[in-house]
Amino acid sequence: MFLTTTISDLIQIKPEEFEKSSIQAIKDAIHVKYANKVIQEVGLCICLRDILKSSEGLIGHGTGIVNVNVEFRLVVFRPFKGEIIEGKISGSNPQGINVQLDFFDDIFVPGPVNLFEGVKFNNAESVWVWTTETGDELFFDMEERVRLRVEAEVWTDLSPQAPLIAGANGSGGENGEGGEGSEERRSPYCVVASMQQAGLGPTLWWEE
């Protein structure tokens, strides 16, 4: 679930940080730049593990900012395919179930394909229900602790794009399909999971 990755980057130390020791100022700058950020094809940065090496600082002309080339290691979140993890149900809709961890919200279990055979979505209660072979109804309730299997990961590049010109190619404009109101929240990193094997799903089901 957690990996370490080595990064080389130019770290900038602002003048107001000069009262700190050099190593502490570098650590704080790395934390501000990387903590809780997604690096494409690497994972979600959790924290700095250690600093491997750093150069002498060079003061930028006219800014007072010190530029330091630093090589360091970060702890990142990136579960591997087939890994079993635990989370909490944060939402359900006809497309599937959203699951979150304490530090990561973008886990999705498509339904019904990645759920147990015999599951159906109850529109009245907005919850997925599994009817077992014995006829019992088991619910995937909100806030329920669940165990799931990682199946895939989806990366989305959210780098800034050039603004669209209103009316170009028949799109854009205040009421067009390209308008702000139609833009959906996108995540740079999403984990796709399943709950369709014995032992998976709400942990309460499998407690003896």
From TrEMBL:
RNA polymerase III subunit Rpc25 domain residues: 83-206
GO cellular component, one term: RNA polymerase III complex
SUPFAM superfamilies: N-terminal, heterodimerisation domain of RBP7 (RpoE), Nucleic acid-binding proteins
Region (Disordered): 162-185
Matching CDD domains: RNAP_III_Rpc25_N
Keywords: DNA-directed RNA polymerase, Nucleus, Transcription
Record's compositionally biased regions (Gly residues): 169-179
Biological processes annotated in GO: transcription initiation at RNA polymerase III promoter
Localization terms from the record: Nucleus
Domain RNA polymerase Rpb7-like N-terminal stretches: 8-64
InterPro entries attached to this UniProt entry: NA-bd_OB-fold, RNA_pol_III_Rbc25, RNA_pol_Rpb7-like_N_sf, Rpb7-like, Rpb7-like_N
Principal location: nucleus
Annotated Pfam families: RNA_pol_Rbc25, SHS2_Rpb7-N
Domain of life, source organism: Eukaryota
Gene3D superfamilies in the cross-refs: Nucleic acid-binding proteins, RNA polymerase Rpb7-like, N-terminal domain
Primary role: DNA-dependent RNA polymerase which catalyzes the transcription of DNA into RNA using the four ribonucleoside triphosphates as substrates.
Similarity-based family: Belongs to the eukaryotic RPB7/RPC8 RNA polymerase subunit family.
Protein's UniProt name: DNA-directed RNA polymerase subunit
Classification of source organism: Eukaryota, Fungi, Dikarya, Ascomycota, Pezizomycotina
